[in-house]
Specification:
With about 80 residues, this protein is mainly alpha-helical. The protein contains three helices and two strands, in the order H-H-E-E-H. The protein has a two-stranded antiparallel sheet. Helix 1 packs antiparallel against helix 3. The radius of gyration is 18 Å and the shape is elongated.
Length: about 80
């Protein structure tokens, strides 16, 4: 694929990665500041589940960028 064709995809992946990094830090204080009701998702504390989810989103973005954008250009 021509790198010029992927310009829109490149900016979309940049934007999604910035959102994922921002959301990855998460509302930690709001999620863990309730000692009476420990909230869990499938037995995992919700704060850990939140972080793992956004880590997987970042990993998917990196893999998509690797497979579509970060290609060596053919020699002229």
């Amino acid at each position: 694929m021509n790198p010029k064709e992927n310009k829109g995809l490149k900016y979309l992946l940049y934007a999604l990665f910035i959102v994922a990094v921002t959301m990855g830090t998460g509302p930690g204080v709001l999620l863990i500041n309730d000692p009476v009701n420990v909230r869990t998702v499938f037995g995992v504390p919700i704060l850990y589940a939140w972080v793992v989810f956004w880590y997987l989103v970042m990993t998917a973005i990196i893999i998509a960028a690797y497979r579509t954008i970060w290609r060596e250009s053919p020699d002229p």
